Structures are given as C-alpha cells and as structure tokens.
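seq:
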Amino acid sequence: MATPTLRLQQPLHRTEAAEALNHGDISKCTTSDRSPTDTYDPWDPPRPPPHPSIKALTSRHQFNMQYSRQIWNFLAQVRGTSIIVPDRTSQGTMAMFVEIHARLVAILKKDSVPSFQRMFVKYRECMVCGYVITPQTLQLIIAMNALRCAKFVLEGTAPKLGGQRANPNYITSFGFFPLHQAAETFSADMVELLLNYGALPNLRTSGDRIIEGLLPLHVAIENTCQHKYLEDNLLSDQSHMKGNVEYIYKLIYLLCLPEMKIFMDTTRVLASQTDNIVDELWDYIKHGKLVPAAILLLAAQRHLRNLGGFDRIQDLIDDSNFSLAREECGLESGKNTKAQKQLKEKKAQFSNAFMLVRIILNAGEALDAYIQTHSKASHEEVLGKVSAILQNYDVGPSGKAAIKEPRKGQNLYFARDQFLPMWRSVLTCRFLVSFFPSYAPKKESLYARPVDTKKKVNNQRPCQVGLGLLDTSRSWKSRKDPKVSSAPRSRRLFATAASTVLKMLKRS
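struct:
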C-alpha cells in the first residue's frame, strides 16, 4: 500500500493563533520580530501579551494571577485544537493513569457524565498533562464507546474541566490518533462525533510500535477483512485466482449479512471524509485484494459516484489489461512459463475486479438500501433477497453460491467482540506482548498477562491474515520475573551437587 509522508503537525501563524485564542475579551497578539509566515510547535506557542484590562491592574499579585489565567486558557486552546505529535504526556502521568484505569473503566461502561466529572475532579493529575486531557484518557473513552463522556471532554466547556479539553488530533504513545481507535471499535456514532469536533480523517499512524502510514479508513477495512464470516468462507477459497466469478457473488452475499452492518457503516462514514478515495481503492485492486476492494466499493459507492470514481477505476483496469496484453506478446511461446503464469493470474485478478466494479455500479444503491433497512433479517432471507436484486440489474449469478453457514450472533452490539478479537487488530499487531508467570507480581502495564510457564508459548499467531493487504503477524515473548526465585529449590540443587562431589572424592 502506498504510504505518503505523515504530516507530523499543522502549525499556525503566530498572529492567527493569537487571534483565535484571544477571541472575546483577550486582544489580538502580534509579533514584530518575525515574519507572518513563521510557524511554531503548537505545544510551545509564543505567549500572547497581557490583555489591556490586565495591564490596567495596579496590584502586582492580581496582575500575575490574571495573566497566568490568560496563559492557561491560551495553552489549553492551542494544545486542544492543534495536531500534536508526538505524545507529550509525562511518564509520571501515565503511571498514575494506570492506577485509576479499572475505576475509570467501570464508569465508562455506564457512560455516566456526572460520575466521570466527580472522578475527573478527584484525579485530575492522572488525566491531564500540559493543560490538555491526555490522549490515554480519550483513547479509553473511545474504546469503551462512551459517547456522552466523549462529547463532554471534547467540548471542554464544563466548569469542572477548568477550560481543559480532549484533543481529537493528539497522537497516542502507540502512534495512532483517536479516529484510528474509533475505527477499531467500529462505532460509526463515535466516528461521526470525533469528526464533528474536528478530528482529521487523513492523519496517518507513525512510530515503531505500529504499522506506519495507516489511515483510519485502512484500520476499518483491514479489520473487517478479518471478520469471522469472511475468513470461514473465503480464506481457503482460491478459486478467484482462476477467474471464478462465484467467489465474487459469495463475497457480496457475506457483506450484506446483518452481522456485517456495523463494520460497513463505520467504513462508509470514514470513506466519505477521506481524501483520494479512488487511489485507495485502486491500491487494493492492483494488488489483487478483492475482499478489501469489495468492502470499500460497497461502503463508499455513493461517494464514488459523486466523484466519478467508477469510470476512473474502469479506465485503470482497461489500461492495465492493455499493458498485460502487450507484455504477453513479448513472451516467446514455450518459454518463460513462470512469467506466463504470473500474467495469467494478473489477468484473472483484473477480470474479477472489473466484474466486481460492474456489479456494484449497477446494483450497489439497491444493495445498500437493503442493508440499511433489514438489519435483523435471517441469513436465508438475505441470500434470497440479494440474489433477486442482482438478477433485477442483470448482474446476478447463474447458480447458487455455496456459503458455509456462519456462526450467528445473539446481539449486534457485541458483533465486534464475537467476530473480531481485539488482539487481531492492525493497530495492535506490532505490539510486543509479554507473558508473565502467574506467580509474578502485578506489573504496571495494561498489556501484561499471566501465562502457565509449563506450556510452550507459540511464537506465531494462531491465524495468519490472508484477505487484507497488510502483514499483521504478531510477535509473542515469554519472560520470567528475575526477582522471583525459589529458595528451597536452589538449596536442593546445591545439596545435590555437594553430595555428588563428596562421593567422587571418596571413590578417589
């Protein structure tokens, strides 16, 4: 996948920042010693001069107090509305946040704003660093899908917050932004809430702890590719490599099932706000990845129609087929069998992609309308209705697609946890997960987990991802606490060695 350079920050003009932050009773700030095109780190902006009302104060104490409050509001506004990279949260604040993590989770499960306010007042130093609510706090709120609490911290207008707010464009210590976390949670409502409060959908992941260059849209698509339904039916089916169109129909049927709705809705919201959506779609098609291409096509088909994306994709496929035909003419018959095989596979890939684009172009709107209005239909009903829609638009299959009966979910709210375990997400696949013995003391880490040391730890993931474009293999590491030792066992080993030495000395 193409990985454009990440724009680490979006600095503002000094005068623009001062004007934005001195709105109301604070005067505009200008700097005469620098040109108006100079930029700065939004974490450390130039301080504005005192407001005229503050300058008029005769008491030095009152002046210092009022000017400190002006600087407080200034920094809280700049740091709460700019792109902040990297994470500036101190290690001490992170450690204190771990201590209150369990209590905060209990509150966020109920999504109770009054309870959150009381906890914020009591543990402010655990959730605030540098006049802004820490990205760890916002990350947990998003992960728990606490919409009311998220709106509360994003607005930042409540008196108990003291003018401090959560920044939707503040990168976490793991290298992703809040919108990436919302995409992983598959909450379309949370994604829309973040976008309404200024989250930028084109910020990419960065750092050595994560796959770099991922958009929130990539997270949604790649994680959807790991859905239990898709892997059960498509992972072992390689018939599309030979140009079998039944694979495409099977894929469309699966994407229309009710248990796929929250995944498709999240992808739809993100795709409507992401730039260069046609280029992202072409990336999947040219790499022969039909599953992510189908997810993006079906979810973003309305947006693609407005951009003329279908015509552009069809032109790119035609150009690629023409290039393959010219390349095939340059190969001698009976030779270069490996190259001929590769060309044949590429032609089959583009043929399948063209068929997929044609189906979504003709029947995409009807399929999308059906998905939105039949969220509780049975699988048999979906199969029959989707087949009828495809037949009505003359893009239906000649026979019935063979689909393995999926495992049905009891409640759509838990669909993500049922069909996509959190540890398989593309956001966490670069984390080094350490297993600690069950007798080891509790670590100050949210990702430490006990393991039976008698069992051998597998260094590979139980299931390798094959439907998406990204390599998401995980590294596992088993380690023991060096402080934990068995004193009786050491004494027994010493006694055994000593007795062996004594026997050897007696024999000599």
